[in-house]
């Protein structure tokens, strides 16, 4: 059966949709974490010369403690890797931040626990157990809503551990945690740590573009051609990575300044992004943000009290979610 994804990817890889600028223009991109497979299209586009062909001199900034969304909103970076929570909360509070490219087409996160836990069969069984987390209000709201959707009270113990939560889960020091399947989940599989998981969407949480690229309206208004050229070249990078995963793995490892050393993990992670139709949807969609999906997530965040305006007041009615993102700068 014909798979439209291959035609779309091949077209993008050939660069048939990449506009070129008259001269090289600097573009700064901020990361949300140290280099990983969510960023692979950026590094591939840079290494393969896609940005150069588009007339851009792209600088992928080193990860810092300042969020990519904040760097973009303050015009320190022109684009940044952000999550939907950052987009919705920062935009609602008045930040100049807008989503422009969906790196993944659906949710990569999940709630996980050790496979041996026969006492955990559904989220309501998590009441009273210990969660190893990362210290954000979002985690409490997310997990609590999942437990309540399953008929529980949403009461659990929360221990802030950061990335040590994964080791704590493996050795039984905590009962459950949250992970990105396409990285921590794949690592657990490679390490032989048997896990089971609850998928957010099965318990009242809308599917979402877990990772996206954001920009500022100020930048988009001032540099529309550069924005289109950057996103077209970036789209080529992600498309190329899906068609040439071994080469893409080598590229991001070489560019990571020794932050990525486990080639097996990187390749397996990229494979999960490809095979799971994350980078390119099963329908061939790449980069496009789904308006219905964004609105559903916005309403969910509104209903659990996560949307707060610039004065610190919790929103009581839905804002215009169409102003939070745009597909207008993607290749048509």
Automatic annotation (TrEMBL):
Pfam families: NMT1 (PF09084). The keyword Transferase applies. One of its GO terms (molecular function) is transferase activity. InterPro entries: NMT1/THI5, SsuA/THI5. It catalyses: N(6)-(pyridoxal phosphate)-L-lysyl-[4-amino-5-hydroxymethyl-2-methylpyrimidine phosphate synthase] + L-histidyl-[4-amino-5-hydroxymethyl-2-methylpyrimidine phosphate synthase] + 2 Fe(3+) + 4 H2O = L-lysyl-[4-amino-5-hydroxymethyl-2-methylpyrimidine phosphate synthase] + (2S)-2-amino-5-hydroxy-4-oxopentanoyl-[4-amino-5-hydroxymethyl-2-methylpyrimidine phosphate synthase] + 4-amino-2-methyl-5-(phosphooxymethyl)pyrimidine + 3-oxopropanoate + 2 Fe(2+) + 2 H(+). Homodimer. This is Thiamine pyrimidine synthase.
